[in-house]
Amino acid sequence: MNLPNPADLLPEMATALEAHLAQRQISEPRFIGIRTGGVWVAQALLDALGRDDALGILDVSFYRDDFTQNGLHPQVQPSELPFEIEGQHLVLIDDVLMSGRTIRAALNELFDYGRPASVTLVSLLDLNARELPIRPDVVGSTLSLAANQRVKLTGPTPLTLDLQTLAH
């Protein structure tokens, strides 16, 4: 399987995001990336949009519902939100949407900071493997993988996608 090149997807995603925000009459969105890959995609997307907005960073490790099963990731860092959440129009960005559990965790964390006016979800890849009813508003590409396959984003520059096969 040939994976798409993120550099090819980002300009289309930027155009789609601008159209989505304009349709919803959102003129001052706040951008938030989910650590780590989502932050890389968010920064690349801001660059593609020609924006230098402050970028919020979420680390959802403590909010995941599988925290007790998987334990704590050794690289947990605090979230950094350099703006208010209450009443803001947020653009939440992640690299790969798989089960939807990371996005659910991100929403739970964001609502602990306040009630946003809206949340637009942007994802570089949608793997069509949802366990929760969560869909991106803007997506770079949609893929269907075998059960033992995963996609890993490496970066931040250049952003590249690698197909990994899990051992059984």
Task: Give an overview of the whole structure.
The chain is α/β, with parallel strands linked by helices and 168 residues long. It has four helices and seven strands. It has helices at residues 6-23, 37-49, 67-70, 101-113, and strands at residues 30-34, 55-58, 89-97, 118-126, 138-142, 149-154, 160-165. Strand 3, helix 4 (101-113) and strand 4 form a beta-alpha-beta unit. The longest helix has 18 residues, at 6-23.
Task: For the structure shown, list the relevant keywords.
168 residues; 5-stranded parallel sheet; Rossmann fold; 4 helices; 29% helix; globular; alpha/beta
* Helical coverage, percent range: 25-40%
DSSP strand count: 7
Domain unit count: 1
Number of helices: 4
Overall 3D shape: globular
Distance between the termini: 20 Å
Which strand order do you get reading across the main beta sheet? 2-1-3-4-5
Low-confidence stretches: none
Taking all Cα atoms into account, the compactness measure Rg is 15 Å
- The structural class is alpha/beta
Which topology does CATH recognise? Rossmann fold
Query: Main beta sheet, described?
Result: 5 strands, parallel
Task: Summarize the helix and strand pattern as letters.
Answer: HEHEHEHEEEE
Strand residue percentage: 25-35%
The CATH C-level name is Alpha Beta
Mean pLDDT: 92
Layout: helices, strands, pairs:
Blueprint: H1 6-23, E1 30-34, H2 37-49, E2 55-58, H3 67-70, E3 89-97, H4 101-113, E4 118-126, E5 138-142, E6 149-154, E7 160-165
Parallel strand pairs: 1-2, 1-3, 3-4, 4-5
Antiparallel strand pairs: 6-7
